[in-house]
Design a protein that fits this description.
This protein has about 450 residues and is an alpha/beta fold. Helix content is about 50%, strand content about 10%. It has 19 helices and 11 strands. The longest helix has 21 residues. The chain is globular and about 80 Å long. About 35% of the residues are buried.
Length: about 450
């Protein structure tokens, strides 16, 4: 993996693949000569834009990759030497979940040599096999499962799957008839269309399609005008028998604020949950990404990062990117000991002694309440549920007595803490739901988020 490739990959992670694809497409050439990294844009507007918007972000990337000594330059392509004397140059797209992904099982590794190819496979396992099977069925018979709604936590591969579906469709239909975008982009384009006479064009672009794929649906909450436009768009496409694919962190019924009619439309096709990849999937993801980058990483290092890096594909990819750069800089394979040292900040921290204050901070962050509310006499469910969960966590992770926990959370009696512990245990056994900002989630998921906050 070249230094330029590592820089491009890291920048794509920092700003998002959509923005990267727009501003750093194949019309932008990256040229590393000596200690100067020069970006050649097709015109002066693009060159100035890149410099103004992305120079500081590129500096951060260079610092992260220990390349702070490099100078940055932004020029127009006409200024580029006919035969660059660069030590390193590339126009290859960075690794991306969005490009040329095959919906095949993890056991079938199918390398691709397409110049814009991303990861060769979508890794399939227990956590996503239902959603992938639904996607395959939908691809065979478009419009029969519509909408397909995929939901799950960050890093579980939702966007990866949606982009894979989009790639399959856009190879089958006319240009512009398969549309993929985020809910934020849909909102931005809609608001821009209202400033002039662009609304008819906006509607043609999003309604005259064979497939419409929208990521991060929960972004629409609170944006009433956009939700109305989106609702009419969904109705139009469903009536026409077109294919709709959506994703969100929560299921449609858990996203408060969408409105009952829109929630009903979202749930009228097939709703599938995906989870974070399990160990075997993470292991396959790591091996595939090493194969894609063309690097040889010691199997013990792979096992270590799969076990200790936060369990999603993005963090695994970031860890391997760093390994690739370190191995290029040293010219040798990274040893287990060096990897343990160099990747320490990327690994989940080992379990430490947890204080009640740590639990308090975590619960407040997850549930969006302040510390005074948590310790107050308020009995509203939005306050009492987080308070009981905090007490339950305090019993689990600290040696504090019931009386000490009760005293900490508003000078409550010890039997109040016992009652809270029993109620939360019942919630867990019954797979109950609790309210969080922008929706609801299972109590087990809420506890997991809190535990992640204080590093257990």
């Amino acid at each position: 993996m070249t230094i330029v490739s590592a820089i491009r990959s890291r920048l794509a992670d920092e700003i998002g693949q959509d923005k990267f694809d727009i501003w750093f497409d194949q019309s932008v050439t990256w040229n590393l000569s000596g200690t100067t990294l020069c970006l050649y844009a097709p015109n002066s507007f693009n060159a100035e834009r890149l410099k103004r918007v992305y120079q500081s972000k590129l500096r951060n990337v260079l610092s992260f990759l220990s390349q702070s000594h490099l100078d940055l330059s932004f020029k127009v392509a006409t200024e580029q030497p006919a035969e660059p004397s660069s030590l390193e140059a590339t126009t290859q797209s960075p690794p991306s979940f969005a490009q040329e992904i095959s919906l095949t099982p993890a056991t079938q590794v199918i390398p691709t040599h397409h110049p814009n190819a991303g990861l060769p496979n979508l890794v399939v396992g227990q956590s996503n096999h239902i959603a992938v099977s639904a996607a395959k069925s939908m691809l065979d018979r478009p419009g029969t499962i519509s909408p397909l709604f995929v939901h799950g936590p960050s890093g579980s591969g939702k966007s990866h799957l949606l982009q894979a579906i989009w790639n399959k469709f856009r190879n089958r239909v006319k240009a512009g008839r398969a549309v993929y975008l985020t809910a934020e982009q849909f909102t931005t384009h809609f608001l821009e269309s209202l400033q002039g006479n662009g609304l008819p064009s906006f509607r043609r672009k999003h309604r005259d399609v064979e497939v419409l794929i929208i990521d991060d649906i929960e972004f629409f909450v609170g944006k009433q005008a956009t939700m109305i436009e989106f609702h009419y768009t969904v109705d139009t496409l469903i009536r026409s028998g077109k294919q709709l694919v959506f994703s969100a962190k929560l299921s449609p019924t858990e996203i408060h604020g969408l409105g009952t009619d829109l929630v009903a439309r979202m749930a009228s096709g097939l709703v599938c949950r995906v989870e974070a990849p399990d160990f075997s999937m993470r292991h396959e993801i790591a091996h595939q990404y090493c194969q894609y980058l063309g690097i040889d990483v010691d199997s013990a290092v792979i096992n270590m990062l799969v076990e200790r890096v936060y369990p999603d594909a993005r963090h695994i990819q970031g860890a391997i990117n760093r390994i690739a750069v370190l191995q290029q800089l040293t010219g040798k394979q990274l040893s287990f000991e060096d990897a343990d040292l160099q990747l320490a900040d990327l690994f989940d921290r080992p379990r430490r002694n947890v204080r009640i204050s740590d639990i308090e901070n975590a619960v407040c962050d997850v549930f969006g309440v302040d510390r005074k509310q948590l310790k107050s006499m308020a009995k509203a469910k939005s306050i009492s549920q987080p308070r009981m969960l905090a007490m339950w966590l305090a019993r689990k992770y600290t040696r504090a007595a019931y009386s000490e926990i009760g005293d900490y959370f508003g000078k409550r009696a010890h039997n109040t803490v016992i009652s809270a512990q029993q109620r939360v245990t019942n919630w867990i056994e019954n797979d109950s739901w609790v309210s969080i900002p922008h929706g609801q989630c299972r109590v087990t998921e809420a506890l997991r988020r809190c535990e992640a906050q204080f590093g257990t």
